[in-house]
Amino acid sequence: MCVGTYRDVEGLYLSRVFHEKAIRSALSYEPQPDDVFIVSYPKCGTTWMQYITYSIFNDGVCPQDMINFIKSATFLEFLGAEGAKTMPRPGAIKTHLPFDKQPYSERAKYIYVTRNPYDCCVSFYYHTKNFPAYEFENGTFDEFFDLFVRGRVDYGDYFDHLLSWYAHRGDPNVLFVTYEDLKKDSRSWILKVADFVGEDYGKKLRDQPA
């Protein structure tokens, strides 16, 4: 992997896939009272949770195309604050930010998704290998593993990221979810997510026939 592919932006270790202007804009975003954020370290189940919240907000209807999906589940660090401001509501804003960098408000809601580091690392390896911008097409897993444990990948150290949010797992506006629990008991956790984003959503799901 080319060392020049990465750099520090406002304390975040990120590849040049992310534009500095968008990153700084994202960090300056002021959350709205109805904002729902889906937060995770990369490759921990973010996209899965995006589809879940999209379906909850849209009565079980799946997105018709990727453009519509991206607009309704904007990626804050990639599109900047404007993407979140213009996103259709209700919707969920995706971020991979550690807690100390996350635009935060007690009136907004945060769904943090984590995954065991072994599976996260493997998924992150293939993600990095398959995107030419990372210049890692010929990289091996052993090489990537070394970078991963040293925090020399997008968003830095996995464990630091996890611990920053784990400390807030009991906050009333934070829902802490593991990929493994979501996979093991999808129904129960989808209902928890629905209740968390709004009691009416949970009630509506329970009233629907199985």
TrEMBL record:
One of its GO terms (biological process) is sulfation. GO terms for molecular function: alcohol sulfotransferase activity; sulfotransferase activity. Keywords: Transferase. The keyword Metal-binding does not apply. The keyword tRNA processing does not apply. Gene3D superfamilies: P-loop containing nucleotide triphosphate hydrolases. Residues 33-200 form the Sulfotransferase domain. Pfam families: Sulfotransfer_1. Its EC number is 2.8.2.2. It is an enzyme of class 2 (transferase). Belongs to the sulfotransferase 1 family. This is Sulfotransferase, putative. The lineage of its organism: Eukaryota, Metazoa, Ecdysozoa, Arthropoda, Chelicerata.
